UniProtKB/TrEMBL annotation:
HAMAP family: ArgC_type1 (MF_00150). Pathway: Amino-acid biosynthesis; L-arginine biosynthesis; N(2)-acetyl-L-ornithine from L-glutamate: step 3/4. It comes from Marinobacter mobilis. This is N-acetyl-gamma-glutamyl-phosphate reductase. Belongs to the NAGSA dehydrogenase family. Type 1 subfamily. Keywords: Amino-acid biosynthesis, Arginine biosynthesis, Cytoplasm, NADP, Oxidoreductase. PROSITE patterns: ARGC. GO terms for cellular component: cytoplasm. The keyword Transmembrane helix does not apply. Its EC number is 1.2.1.38. PANTHER family: N-ACETYL-GAMMA-GLUTAMYL-PHOSPHATE REDUCTASE, CHLOROPLASTIC-RELATED, N-ACETYL-GAMMA-GLUTAMYL-PHOSPHATE REDUCTASE, CHLOROPLASTIC-RELATED-RELATED.
Amino acid sequence: MIKVGIVGGTGYTGVELLRILATHPEAEVSCITSRSEAGLAVADLYPNLRGHYDLAFSEPDPDTLAQCDLVFFATPHGVAMRLAPELIARGTRVVDLSADFRIKDLDVWAKWYGMPHETPEWAEKAVYGLPEVARAAIRDAQLVANPGCYPTAVQLGLIPLLENGLVKTDRIIADAKSGASGAGRQANVGMLHGEIGESFKAYGASGHRHLPEIRQGLVAASGDSQLGVTFVPHLVPMIRGIEATLYAELNNPADFDRLQSLYEARYRDEPFVDVLPFGSHPDTRSVRGANHCRMALHRQEDSNLVIITSVIDNLVKGAAGQAVQNMNVMFGLQENLGLQAPAMLP
């Protein structure tokens, strides 16, 4: 049984970790921390977990956390880079759900996250935890940087094209939309239902902190350091889900005929990627609560553009579910353990 700790358990990703791990047959949550809610029973804050946990939130204590086999950090940016190295030095493995270790260029990281990185040696050693790309490295990692939600949907949708050199890399477009839970659980007037209900808007159109993470992954897949990508996120009035519509121009229009089989072959053995029939329109509710990415390919008449639609649940495959998937890989478990429940409908 894997002894698990969670640092920062009161946000949406924290409670999603608790929900998933509650029925995981090989993992047990032994401690969960929150400075603001220390002493409060987990079930009192999250009544959906009544009967599943006899735990209270506690102050973060390195000695207690170091007794765990693995610690998840579901914390604001800047926390994991300070505490994780101490735990790793004491033999505890870490999956960080924040952005602290995702971006290798620390000048870029500092620009987007507004602080200098305090542990550059671990930023270099961390494994970027997209299992569909880095499974072998994740298996042996001490520290896994769990990908962001938008970067997961975008990278999975584009990687087969880039790995095979099929598209022009100077002008890739990712047009993505997310539900409100992607902004976190903190109080924010702009995220009130009265503010976002019956409305739809772009944000971060002049630049978003997920852009360098997306570009880093696409450059790695393509091998083209000059790759250009435009990423524009949008806020839609729903709680969960991301839909990314992706555009890339084929080098050879004749390759359209083999794209469907190429995608199916690339993801055939991936338990959490589902390539739908050509021309399908995956919707976010088809992955709600599940650790799946569903995608489909499209072509408009007489166009050289390939269009990919990719959907995930931002709290599951985009955060907590992928973190548990990474844990399973790290400990040599069946990869879909604890993640086998189908999506919720309606």
